[in-house]
Amino acid sequence: MVKWGYNQKIRDDLGAEEINQFANMIINLDFRSEQYIDYGTLLLRFLMKSSNQKGLMINMQTHTLTPGQKLYRTRAMALDDIKKIDGIHHFLSPPKEYVNYGRLNKPNQPMLYTAIDKMELAITENPQINDYFIMVEFIVTRHIPCSYIGSLFQDSERFEFKMPKTKEFHIINNFPRDLLMFKSPNQNYYILTNGIIDKIYYPNKTSKNGYVYHSAVQNNLLNACLNPEIERKYLKVNKVIVMKKIGSNRYHAIKKINITKFKN
Q1: 39, 105, 110, 202: which is deepest, by most CB within 10 A?
Q2: How far apart are CA 16 and CA 223, in angstroms?
């Protein structure tokens, strides 16, 4: 059994148990500094090498949000603060001075996190019973191509490569997708996800728009994380509902906020 460490040389002939151990080691690291880039580099080297296939290429898939599609976001707010809402900015991504690490953003780099098509998936802030929050429904107004975080590798026509079906391959191939579906992340974990996604899905035209990734609540459904510039240009606030949690997985819609008086 391999005991993993950052400076360790990575062999080519790793078994499924060793690959799984490495994946768990990465996920459970206690990141207390911003050395996530080093671990992102390590993981990418590991993923490529342990695949043991020369025909593999990183899968830079695109998922395009289409006009008319609905996105949902929640924001926890006290009832008194809800009554003071005076503009559309309350419904968008937060000001940078309030932004810490998120799943796909660094401090002072706000992103708009939304659930695609399914309103209930947007309730991610774990409100307590009797807590109030607002549910914002956006309408996509133009095509928005985003980087899709799914399987890691794609077939290479040049090498006429046929995808292997081994357990090792599937652990590696699904790692980026599974990384973002982890259900109880904290700030240290967000440092990890940022570093790994930065290295695997290097900045490009679609990742600058945002990312689409699988929901941790319901894995077969999707979330979108969008750049503030994109939200301002290509999203319209369609409606906003004041809601209250009244029991375990039970929510009550209190009222709609009149958004026609705000500039959208």
Answers
A1: 105
A2: 30
Q: Which among 55, 45, 50 has a CA at the least distance from the CA of 20?
A: 50
What 178-184 contacts at long range (C-beta under 8 Å, 24+ apart), as own/partner pairs, is 179/27, 180/103, 180/104, 180/149, 180/213, 180/214, 180/216, 181/213, 181/214, 181/215, 181/216, 181/219, 182/27, 182/216, 183/216
Report DSSP letters for 156-221, one per residue: -TTTT------HHHHHHHTHHHHHHT-SS--HHHHHHHHHHHHHHS-S-HHHHHEEEEE-SSSTTS
148: β partners: 212
Q: What is the dihedral of CA 109, 125, 65, 119, to 10 degrees?
A: -160
Q: What is the dihedral of CA 139, 193, 153, 163, to 10 degrees?
A: -110
For 222-261, what is each residue's pLDDT tens digit? 999 999 999 999 999 999 999 999 988 889 999 999 998 8
DSSP 8-state assignment for residue 95: P
**Token pair of 75 as six digits:** 């924001």
Residue among 201, 204, 231, 203 nearest 213 (CA): 201
| Residue 157 dihedral angles phi and psi, to the nearest 5° | -60, -35
Report the predicted TM-score, pTM, of the whole model to 2 decimal places: 0.81
Could you report the per-residue pLDDT of 207-229, keeping only the tens digit for each? 889 999 998 888 888 999 999 99
Region for 19 from its dihedrals, namely left if φ exceeds 0, alpha if ψ lies in -120 to 50, beta otherwise = alpha
Angle CA 88–89–90, to nearest 5? 90
Tokens of 105: 């953003």
Give the tokens for residue 21: 């151990």
